[in-house]
Fold:
Amino acid sequence: MKFLNILLFFSLFSFQALANPTSCNQTPAQGSNNYIIGYGSLMERESRMSTNPNAKLVEPILIKNFERLFGHSGGNYKTTFLTLIEKNGAKVNGVYYAVTLEDILKTDQREKSYCRVKIDHKNLDLYGRKVKLENTNFWVYAANAERLQKPTATHPIVQSYVDIFLNGCFQIQEEFKLESFAKDCVETTKEWSEHWINDRIHPRRPFAIANAMKIDQLLSKYFTNYYNHRIE
Structure:
């Protein structure tokens, strides 16, 4: 039964770009302009800058024909993280920021269990902003077929990671006055699961976590059992 569930998951959520291994972690062309797109923890300012200290300035972006889901196994870390897969008609909101080759190599190391792929310009919506696209690459860390896995009892969604993700969404919403950006983060994310652990360091002091009250209020609108998640 477990094998059939895994097989079904892969049949539903195949990532076509991984069929060609050479598409993963390509070295950018000399003299090109490069941007990384963040759609999970890289949206949060503090998390992003812990890897690339110069990545303070970001802009909002939509990636078309890709879907964000909880589907990346944390392996020994016993959690399930966000990832991206190709899916016609889907869209994902996120941020993009300029990087050097050194920045890319640092982020490759941080996201080494993912595959960095180049997004076709036709799949990008920059919220009406103008960016020179000639000789420009937009990179995203997407699904690695070996790590695709739905949340399980042994590898659940963890609140500390959800907090980083949605705190980043609220940062972008407030900075760019995008009223529904955080809401869109929730609604364009799939595979939310009952396998969800509240592992906040201070679970009875939510004000100790940036935007925790807003995160709780938003998620409780979508998940009726949200406040019942087991605390660890």
Observations:
- The beta strands are 33-38, 59-73, 80-98, 115-118, 124-125, 136-142, 157-158, 189-190, 196-197.
- The chain is about 25% helix and 25% strand.
- Residues 13-228 form a domain with the Hypothetical upf0131 protein ytfp fold (CATH 3.10.490.10).
- Residues 159-176 form the longest helix (18 residues).
